[in-house]
Design goal:
seven-stranded antiparallel beta sheet; 13 strands; alpha+beta; 25% helix; Penicillin V Acylase, Chain A; 311 residues
């Protein structure tokens, strides 16, 4: 027993010291581990979920952030650091959703010409459709940003009813712009074709959750609970060749923590999973938006729950 406690203490002490070194060398923002899962169902009935989207934001707890709020027709949280007022996730009453994930890179202190934080909000404000926005506004300037994966969704009216289209693009992938119309998809801090193990395993669990939820729109609480349990999963998904390759600048003990869907990176450190976001939209456009936040390790979570109709 004493040996086990000593081992745990030694590992914790080592991680703390190593993380402090990383903060000095790279700055805390070099660790960014977020993930997103999406379900799209074509031709959903009014009492079926047509879109389910969940997201974890991992960030410094002292990074100034405004919780989800309406700004005209756009609902999003706001990253207040640096005065850019960007966001990582937002939805518009006009049937648009944007999600930004940063690519984990060895050196994050490189100063990019443009801020990634503006990509989502500019799309939600734009009159361009997702493909046009990516082709004309993003791709020509893609290398002026640090690494990212951008998810853009739009609700379109077809002869058979409304359908959601998902367009994805990463400035570090050779696959260019990709589009999806129905199915389940997972994204993390790597290019989409080389997902981390926690994304692969999380996607299977997400698929099982949404398969049983299509006819549950009258009572969303059970599916919300299942989705939150997934977002709060602390199981390590390790070893992971892709994460270890991208995160070779971290020691193994840190990599193991980064392999979790949910984590406090270190005891007594102000970094970890700080926001859960869930969007549920049924076949008629009724929308449920849930966001849970905490401002420090050990603090209670606060919840924002909003319902509205898409235009």
């Amino acid at each position: 027993m004493a040996s086990h406690v000593g081992t745990v203490f030694s590992e914790t002490y080592y991680i703390v010291i190593h993380y402090a070194f990383l903060c000095i060398q790279y700055g805390c923002r070099c660790i960014r581990m977020c993930l997103t899962f999406v379900m799209l169902k074509a031709n959903a009935a009014p009492d079926e979920w047509q879109l389910i989207l969940i997201n974890n934001r991992d960030e410094d707890f002292n990074r100034p952030t405004e919780k989800a709020h309406w700004d005209g027709h756009i609902l999003c949280s706001t990253d207040l650091k640096g005065g850019t007022n960007g966001t990582w996730l937002g939805i518009s009453r006009r049937g648009r959703i944007g999600v930004l994930l940063n690519i984990m890179e060895p050196i994050c202190s490189t100063k990019a010409e443009f801020s990634r934080g503006n990509l989502v909000k500019e799309y939600l404000q734009s009159a361009c459709d997702p493909l046009c926005y990516l082709q004309e506004m993003i791709v020509p300037h893609a290398q002026k940003y640090n690494g990212f994966v951008l998810l853009l969704l739009e609700r379109r009216l077809l002869n058979s009813g409304f359908q959601w289209n998902l367009f994805t693009y990463s400035n570090q992938s050779n696959r260019g712009i990709e589009s999806f119309f129905t199915g389940v998809y997972g994204f993390g801090n790597s290019v989409p074709d080389l997902p981390f193990l926690k994304v692969k395993r999380g996607l299977k669990r997400f698929e099982n959750i949404v398969l049983k939820s299509h006819s549950s729109t009258q009572d969303p609480e059970p599916v919300l609970a299942d989705l939150l349990n997934l977002l709060k999963d602390t199981k390590e998904n390790f070893p992971d060749d892709q994460l270890q390759s991208q995160g070779a600048h971290y020691e193994t003990a840190v990599q193991k923590r980064l392999s979790r869907c949910f984590y406090d990176l270190l005891p007594y450190q102000e970094y970890g999973t700080r926001t859960h976001s869930i969007i549920l939209i049924d076949g008629s456009g009724r929308t449920l938006f849930v966001e849970e936040n905490r401002c420090a390790i050990g603090e209670s979570w606060t919840r924002e729950k909003l319902t509205f109709e898409l235009c």
